Amino acid sequence: MSTITSPGVKAGPSLTARLLASQRFSNLTIFGLLVAIIVFFTVVTPSGTFFSNYNLTSIALAGSQLLILSAGVTFLLIAAGLDLSVGAVVVFSSVLAAKLMLGLTSGLAGTAQGGAELWLPILAGVGAGVVTGAAWGLVNGMLVVKSKIPSFIVTLATSTIILGLAQVWTGGMNVSGVPQALTDAFGMGTLLGVPWPVVTAAAVTGLLWVVLARTRFGLRTYAIGANPEAARRAGINVDRHLLAIYCMVGLLAGLVGMIDISRFSTASVSGYANIALQSITAVIIGGTSLWGGRGKMSGTVVGAFIPATLTSGFVIMNLQPFWQNVAVGCVLIFAVFVDQYRRRAMNVT
């Protein structure tokens, strides 16, 4: 028996549209994709190579820094913002921290690695690096909020400026000689067998997950991304909130820079050219809308580990790891297509 629709009554969204609009369905889809990738490489690679404790730990370690940045970028995209300068902030913060450590420890060559005389300069360098990252984030936020210039343009410009300053400062050369004690204790250290960078990434992401899902700060982030003018009328200080998010993203970039120098004992000037786009890609693949107002941290966690998983699998299969870029690009196009279809189907636009 056919269904009769009364004239003038608009039909509701189809089952497909409602399914695509479901955040839970989006999260399950991206999680299923990661599981499928893991199963595929487990089957096609020699037994005990891909799905092993060593390789899974390596994947977690490789994805930890991207995960920290992506967790911050999740807030920014939900609030309808963008930051293309995080890679440059990582470089500048790591350079500053490395140079400060080298300067303060230059006269401590004979100091024992565990001595307080050595660790005070190390902690000073780490603190300065993180604070510097937060300061650059604040600069980005001030420029976006006060100038009303699109965040894409502002952060593209500041990315060039920040990276250029780092290159001028170092002469385009990496800064090596970071105290080995930092690498031994943190970069290569473990907690119950889990590398400290992975523990740090899990702690930071877990904290931001709770903030986004369970606090007023998270609720206001969604409100600003969905409709900033309505958020202002509801009493939310939109400008101050955006400043806080940009500052947080900068702080996380500074933290990633500290993790990097602890792992490799070197501040790389050219190692993070693409991490801004990689973090945005991970967040979008995880189901966060590029147009704001929608997203969850659970999807970001999965999206951040897909590139590292693909790279590991391709290396074990003796394929060029650059195929990871091709695969991630295809997934990104599909994710944006689904998001656009969802917006049209649910009459969000």
Automatic annotation (TrEMBL):
The name this protein goes by in its record: ABC transporter permease
Primary location class: membrane
Swiss-Prot/TrEMBL keywords: Cell membrane, Membrane, Transmembrane, Transmembrane helix
Lineage: Bacteria, Bacillati, Actinomycetota, Actinomycetes, Streptosporangiales
PANTHER family according to UniProt: ABC TRANSPORTER PERMEASE PROTEIN YPHD-RELATED-RELATED (PTHR32196), RIBOSE IMPORT PERMEASE PROTEIN RBSC (PTHR32196:SF72)
Superkingdom of the organism of origin: Bacteria
Record membrane topology: Multi-pass membrane protein
Subcellular location: Cell membrane
Transmembrane segments: 25-44, 56-79, 86-106, 118-139, 151-170, 190-212, 242-259, 271-291, 298-316, 322-338
InterPro entries, sorted: ABC_transp_permease
